[in-house]
Amino acid sequence: MSQPVKVGLAVIAAVIGLVIVYKVVTAIVGTLIGLIIPLAILGGIGLVVYGLVSRNSLPGGRRFLP
Q1: Among 1, 7, 9, 17, which residue has the least CB neighbours within 10 Å?
Q2: What DSSP designation does 58 have?
């Protein structure tokens, strides 16, 4: 096999490999975002409910400067 044919096949293999890696990474990131967003929403709702139920949900309170 001549050198230009080897280079051509290597370039084609590299492009196909990059496309496969890109699709796998986007699928993983999409799955993570699909899990994180609902968990963040549930966490926010839980924090609001906890704040309504517990009067001492956050330490401190209103403090004014002298």
Answers
A1: 1
A2: S
